[in-house]
Every structure is written in C-alpha cells, then in structure tokens.
Amino acid sequence: MKRLPLLIALILLLLIIGWFAIWERFMKPGVGRGEVTPPPIAIVHPPRGFVAKWQTLDDYQGTMSAGELREALEQVYTIGDSWQEVISITEDLASIQTSGEPYLLRLRDGDTPPPTEVRRYWRKGPLAGLRIAIDPGHIGGQFSATEERDFGFPGDKRVREGEISLLAALHLQPLLEKLGATVSLVRSANAPLTPRRPADLLVLYQQVNPGIPVGLLRPAAEKRFYLREEIVERARLVNDELRPDLVLCLHYNASDGSGAWASPDRPVFVDENHFHLLINGAYTEGEVRDEGDRFQMLERILQRIHEREAEMGAVVADVFAERTGLPPYAYDPNSPRAKNVGENPYLWARNLLANRSYTCPVLFFEPWVMNNKEVYARIQEGDYEGLRMVAGKERPSIMREYAEAVAAGIAAFDSKR
User: Fold this and answer.
1) So where are the chain's domains?
2) Cβ proximity of 167 and 188 under 8 Å
3) Contact by Cβ (8 Å): 309, 315
C-alpha cells in the first residue's frame, strides 16, 4: 500500500510529459499538424556595383598560350575543375562566359616566346625607386567594435587590430624609404576611407528588404561597410591614384581555439602562435562562377601577377619567419579555400577582396595570434624603443619587430635579383 502514492505520482508525471509532447507536436501555434517551422529570414544584399569590363582585356590578346593559361587556372587560381564550366580553352582561343556574349581571348602559339612586357601600371625593378603602398589592415578607433577587431579584459589596454597594424605601418615606411623605395600609406589614421557609413548602407538594405526588421538588417549593413565598401575604396585609391609596384597588407591573426569567447571582454587565450603569408589564388567554385571575381582573376593571370607574388613571397616569408621565430600556420591540405605555394610552409594562396582588387602584386601578412597569452602581453606593453622584459624575455615592441621583419624580407629579395 505504501507504494500506491508513488505509483500514482509516476503515472501523473508521465501524463503531464505526454500532454506537453502532444502540445509541442500538434497544438503549438505555427507548428501544427502539416506545418513546418518557417525558414530563417533571407536578407537580400544590394548590388555590389562592380562591372566587369571585358574589353579592357583586349590588350592581352595573343600574349598567353593555352598551356600557360590552363596551368595558371589549375595550379594557382582555382580549386577543382568548376572553372571549365565558364572558361573553355582550345589551342588558339579561350572562350569566357559573361553576362552577355562570351569574351573571346586569342591565345599565343606555345612554340613562340612570351612577350617581355604586357600592359600594367606596376613595374618590376630594383628596390631603389620601387613604389610600395602599405595597407594597414582594418580601421581601428571608434570602428574597432563594429568590425569585430576589439577585445581585452576590463582594465587592460584594448587590443584593436586596426590600430596596431597602423603602428607597424608607420614604422615600416621609413625603413623602406631608407632602402630607396618610394612609399605611401593607404590609410594614415584610424578612420575609414569610404565616405559611406553603416547607417547609409542600412538605408539601402531597407530599400531592397522591405518589411524586414531593422535589427536584422543592421549587422549585414555593418559587415558590408568594413568587409566591402572600405576595401573597395582602398582599391580605388591604390589602382587609380597610388598605382604602386607592390602592396604590403599588414594584419595580425587571432584564434578562438576550441570555441569562440563569450564576449570581447572575456577573450579566450590559446597556445597557438604562428605566421603565414598570403598571395592571390585558390578561387572557390562560387567565386569562379561570379563574373566580377572571374574577370579580376583573369586580369591578374594575364598581367602575370602571380609570378611576381610567388617569387617575392617565398623570400619575404622565409626571412620574416627567421626574424620572428614564428612557426608556420598550415591550412588543411584539402581546404576548399587555400593552396600551398611552392611547398613553402609559410606561403599560401587565397582569394581575398584586397589581394584580388589591388591590380598589382600583393603580399598579405598574417603574423602572431593576438589572443595568445604572450602576444597579448606584448600588445599591452604598447610601442616603445629598444628592448623590454615581456613575458619572461627581452623583446622589442611587437609593432617595430613586425616592421623590421618585413623590411628585412623586402631587402633580401632585392639582394637576390
């Protein structure tokens, strides 16, 4: 008899659980019998505004052979064979899919030597007189949080990638000028170059997404601001005004380890610390099918930019690694977004908006992991002259070490000419 109340309680519990299961499956509003959970709201992005000007490639007619074009596509610029769906190559002609009629590129007979020069604004040559543009990654300042490049523990100095990359650039400029280069900064302050702001882009998003709450559109507008609009404006400055022979994009790395930190005020420290150098290449299936990306890819191929990037990148990466002691970062060998270049463990090809849109050789640096405990401590020390005891070792300012390692790499490449 003593077990009867317990049995009744167990039966009542099972009945309650069963009722909630029936309510959840058949009676809950919006998920009734025969209905499915509505899909997440799809946000339509405003047009990018980039127009592929295929006729500008006419200057490269007959300059590249079928073998050279095929090798560039297969070995450097694409992953997989999806490019064959939009580009067909015969011995004397390449037919490239466009939004209109296919663009036809006449190919050079493979038995004739390639031209010594092709049309491009950038030049090869010795470091003395070389025009170099330094592009400090990201923006910094009041825009650091918007671009998700701002973290640190309460009471500590904020780690803002845009600000420490600019400090490295300011130290690098005179070092390269001392070596004889003509050097300019793509940005010289912690402020964006684009006149557009997230609020301006939010208006565009509202126009093409009527009825969608502003709160859902704002993150898309912010990402458009710092991931596209700012870089496109930098590309306009580089290609139309600065017209350098080389662009050095200075960035720092970060890692979430086994899981992203809960907030920018509670960063997760990781043990890893590494370096890799990126050049353009490894276009994904979707990027090859995008007409704008496809045009910029072919423009780089026909200007033979990769040859210069790979040759210079291998030397600079080795010197940078030797100077800093950083181990290489390795992408998965089967990564759909990256390709190793020349079996150099530090040198990788990836298609980024910056190293695609700057129509000249680009070296894109990714050293140090900012939320590595040692690196974080170095950033907390800020910029200083000479050496300081940091994390148990005498070290230079991390920004100055960055600048000196890049300059040493460029000088080493120049000496090998």
Assistant:
1) 7-38, 131-415
2) no
3) no
Q: What residue has token string 């070995």?
A: 75
Q: What is the pTM of this model?
A: 0.89
CA atoms within 13 A on the CB side of 218: 5
Dihedrals phi, psi of 123, to nearest 5 degrees: -125, 155
Q: What is the DSSP letter of 269?
A: P
Tokens of 266: 């509670």
C-alpha–C-alpha distance, residues 357 and 132, integer Å: 16
The two tokens of residue 183 are: 């050097």
One DSSP character per residue, 267-334 reads PPPBS---EEEEES--B-HHHHHSHHHHHHHHHHHHTTHHHHHHHHHHHHHHHHHHHH-PPBP---TT
> Torsions phi, psi of 90, nearest 5?
-110, -175
The rounded radius of gyration (Å) of the Cα atoms in the chain is 26
For 131-415, CATH number? 3.40.630.40
Task: Return the half-sphere exposure (C-beta side, CA atoms, 13 A cut-off) of residue 241.
Answer: 9
Give the whole-angstrom CA distance, residue 94 versus residue 376.
51
- Each residue's pLDDT, cut to its tens digit, for the chain (417 residues) gives 455 555 555 555 555 555 444 444 433 444 333 344 445 678 999 988 888 999 999 999 999 999 999 999 999 999 989 999 999 999 999 999 999 999 999 999 988 999 989 999 999 999 999 999 999 999 999 999 999 999 999 999 999 999 999 999 999 999 999 999 999 999 999 999 999 999 999 999 999 999 999 999 999 999 999 999 999 999 999 999 999 999 999 999 998 765 545 678 888 899 999 999 999 999 999 999 999 999 999 999 999 999 999 999 999 999 999 999 999 999 998 889 999 999 999 999 999 999 999 999 999 999 999 999 999 999 999 999 999 999 899 999 999 999 999 999 999 999 987
C-alpha–C-alpha distance, residues 154 and 151, integer Å: 9
